[in-house]
Specification:
- This is TM2 domain-containing protein.
- By secondary structure, the protein is an all-alpha fold.
- The protein has one domain.
- Helix content is 79%, strand content 0%.
- The protein is built from 4 helices and no strands.
- The longest helix has 23 residues.
Length: 63
């Protein structure tokens, strides 16, 4: 779910994972960097980070 949310809107996967401040920072960075055509960098970082954190959360809740 975090992956799909991040694909749709940068930072929403982090918000879904409970990392609200990180998600908001990624959203703002992505929007600002899209103005100079570099927003895709933050968007890809957001997608990868959302998946990694979601997997870590799932491993911790299901020992």
């Amino acid at each position: 779910m975090a992956l799909l949310l991040s694909l749709i809107l940068c930072g929403t996967g982090q918000i879904y994972n409970g990392e609200v401040s990180k998600g908001i920072i990624m959203m703002v960075l992505c929007i600002l960097l899209w103005l100079v055509l570099l927003g895709w960098v933050v968007h890809i970082w957001s997608i990868v980070d959302a998946v990694v954190v979601a997997e870590r959360i799932n491993r911790q809740s299901n020992p």
